[in-house]
Amino acid sequence: MYSKIMVPIDLAHIPLIEPTLQTVADLAQHYNAEVCYVGVTANTPGSVARTPQEFSQKLEAFAQERAKVHGQPVSTHTIVSPDPIADLDDDLIQAIKDVGADLVVMPTHPPKHIDVIMPSHGGKVATHTDVSVFLVRPTKG
Amino acid sequence: MANDENANEKPTASEGIPAPEGAANLIDTDYVIGQDNITASPLGIDVDLHGKVFMFSSIVILLFVILTLALQDQMEPIFNSMFSFLTTNLGWVFLLGANVFVLLALVLIFTPLGRVRIGGADATPDFGYAGWFAMLFAAGMGIGLMFYGVSEPLGHYGTALGGISLGEDGLRTDWAPLGGAEGDQAGAISLSMAATIFHWGLHPWGAYAIVGLSLAIFAFNKGLPLTMRSIFYPILGERVWGWPGHVIDILAVFATLFGLTTSLGIGATQAAGGLNYLFGIPSGDATLVLLILGITLVALGSIMLGVDKGVQRLSQINMSLAALLLLFVILVGPTLMIATGVVENLIGYVTHLPALSMPFGREDANFSQGWTAFYWAWWIAWSPFVGMFIARVSRGRTVREFLISVLLIPTLASVVWMTAFGTTAIDQVISDGITEVQDAALELQLFTMLEYLPLTAITSFVGIVLVVVFFITSSDSGSLVIDSITAGGKVDAPKPQRVFWALIEGALAIALLLGGGLAALQTAALTTGLPFTLVLLVGCYAIIKGLMSEPR
User: Fold this and answer.
1) In the prediction, which pLDDT does A26 show?
2) Residue B166 contacts A where some CB pair is shorter than 8 Å
3) Chain B positions in Cβ-Cβ contact with residue A82 (cut-off 8 Å)
């Protein structure tokens, strides 16, 4: 049913997105789908990488590690943005088209009041794309 | 490339770090950006801040505001005497420093170092020419051109024509630039335009260029965080990550926030004055507060949209509006005089430049200290803000391209702008004998001048819109800069932090306008110009050192 799953990830917070990674592994095996890990980085030096090229390397290494876990083919897509915080949603929506994904699995936080002014990225992406979006909440406890 | 096993660990050394696009020379440091940051989620709002820089700058700002509001009468004389001491006794430091910045920037254009590309040899620009240039100009001057475009040429013209007058102690009491031009109308025009262009030309942009270029090189080519402390790396080494670096960053936050706040106050005053002039809206405290609230709200919207869709778009809109207003003034004003004036003023600027920028042995103390040193302190205090913002949007440009666009093109734009507005205003005085403009309050001189041109209602309204939008872009880019400094150089810190700073700017401006003390704080912001002159001189050294080690 799905052939390419796009997974936006935050390399700075890998432990936080563990539930998402597990969901992706199961789904990818079930549908025998390729997994495309997408990372967004600023063009300025940041906490994960000091250059966008280093960021790409780390993303690729991360993807290869995940491939060992779930055994499905992987690919990566690095988005370099001058203002990643503000452009994240639009960049991800564009990336869905660019990588040709038919399912997006991404982590999100539980709904909270501030979402009214600053919507969650997952919610924003889901309302602006025609592919299926699976938002994974953090596990309780 | 695919099998970097250390990928999920913090890098222990930068050996494995690939260069940015194309060849560049990264600095080898163990510092991890954000390692001193505090991350938390109070009230469901995520924050990611540099603990010490954020805490100390917040406390210092709070103390300052409380002190100036509570002890206004005691604080104001302290600031005033501090500042007049600085400009009177150390005015030469500002003048000399500014000359160094301009000379270095000019020399770099013509050396092989100009071939170095910001962000690595193969980097491509993030923004197109139109958007990039609009952002440079809107961040660097914007509001000042609206405020001083008419009033400064007119002011210098008056003092120059008045000539030299000596006090009882033999010291000059007049404010004329250089030797003045007593009774010589043509000479007074030439001198006043040269003096104005001098204050809005190469020197301010030289300071911006030095900060912007050094930050850009150390962030994009050397891989250091985008904060002021990074340019001290060639001198302090790893110590920049400790207290010496914290102090530099705190100073930068301080200068940026107070510079912005006081300008927000000035801008609100001019916009309110304009609204009163045009529509008869009472320019009381209520109008000022509503204006600042409105400006802050729009700025918040723009912050949410980010650099690309927020600041860039607004800057472009404003540049088009400003260009239209400029074109209008040129066409309906004394067109021929303005056209010949651009060339004459440019020549006048170059001829008077050596004398005007001379740091020592000046006889026109009132002018060189009261105007020039004041301006230089002002531009330099602003330079961390403008420089950081310029650096952030300039990746992918070569050093030569950067310097020509930050130094020469804005200077030419200033020449044209000042000539158009200044010549029109002076011509109104000379040919039509209109003295109303000269007599009007500073914030109203632009509107008074426009009144004697056709379509007053429309042009004055455009003028008000320009003032307001320039302030939105300043508040917006200022929040980005302060947020990035207080987040230890991270540009991807959570969005609520930017919102926080924009709100603080608005709240501070309101508090200071209502409680008084805006002038005292402006003086305080200006006093940061002195330490920053030294910071910028270090920046000069850092640029040379940094560029020499880059492949070109």
Assistant:
1) 92
2) no
3) 126-127, 307-308, 392-393, 395
Cβ distance A62 to B8 less than 8 Å, yes or no, reads yes
Amino acid at B398: T
CA-CA distance, B486 to A132, in Å (whole number)?
Answer: 39
pLDDT tens for each residue of B130-150 = 888 888 887 777 778 888 888
Look up the CATH number of the domain holding residue B339.
1.20.1740
What pLDDT is recorded for position B83? Answer: 78
Structural domain tally of chain B?
Answer: 1
Please write the tens of the pLDDT for every residue from B430-462.
Answer: 888 777 888 888 888 888 888 888 888 889 889
CATH code matching the domain that covers A4-136, chosen among 2.40.170.20, 2.40.50.40, 3.40.50.620, 3.30.930.10: 3.40.50.620
Q: A65-83: per-residue pLDDT in tens?
A: 898 888 889 999 998 888 8
Give the model's pLDDT for residue B517. Answer: 63
Sheet holding A74-81, edge to edge: A74-81, A34-42, A4-8, A103-107, A132-136
> How far apart, in whole angstroms, are the C-alpha atoms of residue B19 and residue B141?
35
Tell me which chain B residues have a C-beta less than 8 angstroms from the C-beta of A45: 33, 219, 223-226, 489
**What are the φ/ψ torsions at residue B37 (nearest 5 degrees)?**
-80, 155
Q: Do A45 and B226 touch (CB under 8 A)?
A: yes
> How large is the ipTM?
0.79
Task: Report the distance separating Cα B532 and Cα B383, nearest Å.
Answer: 8
Q: Structural domain boundaries of chain A?
A: 4-136
Burial of residue B220 (CB within 10 Å: 0-12, 13-18, 19+) is buried
Low-confidence ranges of chain B (pLDDT < 70): 1-25, 28, 30, 34, 40-45, 47, 516-518, 521, 552
Q: How close B106 gets to chain A, by Cα (Å)?
A: 27
How many interface pairs between A and B have CB atoms less than 8 angstroms apart?
123
Q: Which residues in chain B have Cβ-Cβ distances shorter than 8 Å to A42?
A: 491-492
Chain B within 8 Å of A42 (Cβ-Cβ)?
A: yes
B126 touches chain A (CB under 8 A): yes
